[in-house]
Write a structure and sequence with these properties.
Layout lengths: L18 H6 L6 E5 L7 E8 L4 E6 L5 E13 L7 E4 L3 E4 L4 E18 L5 E2 L20 E2 L5
Antiparallel strand pairs: 1-2, 2-7, 3-7, 4-5, 4-6, 4-7, 8-9
Length: 152
């Protein structure tokens, strides 16, 4: 039997930051203001600020759905180049499904938003798809280059 003090009940819920305070802090041109860094987490989350007129260029996230919450400012969410951009305002909750093309453009006052998605696996060393099989016994193997993941 394990003593109660030896049982790992896991991390306790807690407040991690005040996103309004981050958004109201003296402006920085752009960048990540906060990042979830708790060990053992299953999620990744970031608070990001785009400077006025700043832009996340059109890209397609092939692996992860992303939730985005606008904390401060305003901007536009672009999708397929043929689609009309959608306004982003404070409080907007946006689902960015994997496989969908998206871009974000900050308005005149900039844009601060929170993103949340499943945690990406770390970089792994392995064979590239279509690479030749393992060398025969006794041959000197050449390690394959590391494979990476795309940004969120």
């Amino acid at each position: 039997m394990t003593s109660p003090s030896a049982i790992d009940s896991g991390p306790d819920p807690r407040v991690l930051c005040d996103v309004r305070a981050l958004a109201e802090a003296p402006p920085v041109p752009a960048g990540v203001l906060w990042k979830l860094a708790e060990s053992g987490r299953q999620l990744d989350a970031n608070v990001v600020r785009l400077a006025p007129g700043g832009r996340i260029t059109a890209h397609t996230e092939t692996q992860l759905d992303v939730m985005l919450v606008v904390v401060a400012g305003a901007g536009l969410l672009g999708e397929d180049p043929s689609a009309e951009p959608q306004p982003l305002t404070e409080g907007a909750l946006v689902w960015l499904p994997h496989g969908a093309t998206r871009s974000i453009t900050a308005g005149e006052a900039g844009l601060t938003y929170l993103t949340v998605h499943r945690r990406r696996p770390g970089m792994r060393i392995g064979s590239r798809p279509g690479a030749s099989p393992e060398p025969p016994s006794g041959a000197s193997p050449v390690p394959p280059p590391p494979t990476g993941t795309s940004p969120a």
